[in-house]
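Q: My labmate handed me this sequence with no annotations at all. I'd like to see what the chain might look like in three dimensions before we decide whether it's worth expressing. Could you predict it?
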Amino acid sequence: MASLNTTNSRWGASIAHQIYGDPEMHDQIRQLCMDYMELNRDHFSQYVTEEWSDYIRRKRQDRCFGNHAEMQAMSELFNRPIEVYAHCTGSFKCTDSRISLSRCSRY
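A: Here is what I predict for the chain of 107 residues:
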């Protein structure tokens, strides 16, 4: 497990680290993700509550958090399941999170 200290896109850095071996490629991951979501607008727009073009523009910005839609897009784009693990205390304050991409199918 690698510890990534980044103030940029935490989800982008985590996936860039696992795909390219370089968390600094987080911006490329973000752009690939948003390009993929734009190409598949009919599917992903169902999960977005704001104007689609505003959402895409905002998510292309550095330091914008990803959510379930981006995780699903990355899973589809790289054809790998994505699992997010979070360490939370009894008060549900999460202090650490991990993103894991698996190379193997479970079936």
